[in-house]
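Please check this one:

***
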Amino acid sequence: MYKPHHAATDVATVKLLIDGEFVESKTSHWRDVVNPATQEVLARVPFATPDEIDAAVAAARRAFATWRKTPIGARARVFLKYQQLIRAHMGELAAILTAEQGKTLPDAEGDVFRGLEVVEHAAAIGNLQLGEIANNVAGGVDTYTLQQPLGVCAGITPFNFPAMIPLWMFPMAVATGNTFVLKPSEQDPMVTMRLVELALDAGIPKGVLNVVHGGEDVVNAICDHADIKAISFVGSTRVGTHVYRRASQAGKRVQCMMGAKNHAVVLPDANREQTLNAMVGAAFGAAGQRCMAASTAVLVGDAQSWIPQLVEKAKTLKVNAGTEPGTDVGPVISCAARERVESLIASGIEQGATLELDGRAPAVPGYERGNFVGPTIFSGVKPGMRIYDEEIFGPVLVILAADSLDAAIELVNANPNGNGTAIFTQSGAAARRFQEDIDVGQVGINVPIPVPVPMFSFTGSRASKLGDLGPYGKQAVAFYTQTKTVTARWFDDETRHLGVNTTISLT
């Protein structure tokens, strides 16, 4: 098992992974990894030095020379083994994740499992990384394509899914023949490091996967490094926009999945009980810390009368530490996150929204120091209010009203974000119209969090995404490979002496 080194203070230190070895950083800049339910310091994470970043990239560059030549079946077998190891350690991984991130143990297992699905997909790389061929496009000429790896790739991942999102990135990159440098969130890197150790146990050779930790300086170093060819990012819009601009200017291929304001449109013909259950779960699960959380409800027509029932359902959710049985809503990641969520709630009151349910300062016996915010609901919300215009990233549901489906579609399309949206209805005609006219990359029909399975890809749009290709599925294969087109002609005795041809034709 990955065991961080114990420093003189007897607090574990998270290591770097460079060239197949877990190494102690020589940095003087450290950050505490804190249990958000208790404020216990679990470990100290280093902010890697420039030399350490260079060493990680150099190791990946050296490893690429041989890894890119490794048969595709051998690469696939690594991920067959890896998915077995993740399954075998699911409980351990969930426990680490809950301790450092705060989400409930069942939700932590779901975090790992959604990443595991991508690992399973990576094991099918032999069927995914296929080129095309056209025989005899001209006299004796064949044209075909090769899908070849780029080289050293990098990933920058957020705190809210410290298992799933790293598993979105490096398995697909490595399976396609690249090598990888991963920078996990500095707030909760421990479960990521355990997954990395399991990846080495599965057979990923030294140097193929490397890990550096840190903040803004490390992100900038990844963006600028000449030997890194592609970067995948998931996180805030502010940082993602910076990464995209800086790395693109450095000539890299970049994909950035960023912030959101996901609307769930509820028509009055929807199944009321199922819709209310879905909305409460999607708004408040993971303490609202999901980029795909259904944080915004648009109640159409008579559905506006459902607000009291929605509030009553939200009141039944249990706020507690993620390790406690029956917990529905755990803490947010940090004291700063709690303060920001509470300030946004206060702004909603000040700007005239109706506070239907106030989740501030919930009583959580035994965890009085935890970063808890309970389910919070506002009605009467309008564009221009901070609680609508900003991504809250906490357990806060804002409710807007619309007179018709047309008005609801217009409202959603006017919002700059395009990560996900959903409609709740029993009308196939309304659902089809919604999916056609809505300008959002991922659409759910009676599904509140429409994150696609790995056979497809994550397809957020507009202000929620920069870059054309998503982070897993077929789009990830395209992102992590370059297409080389070969036009070939083999001469036989009859065509050997055709003479000089100065025209563009191949015939």
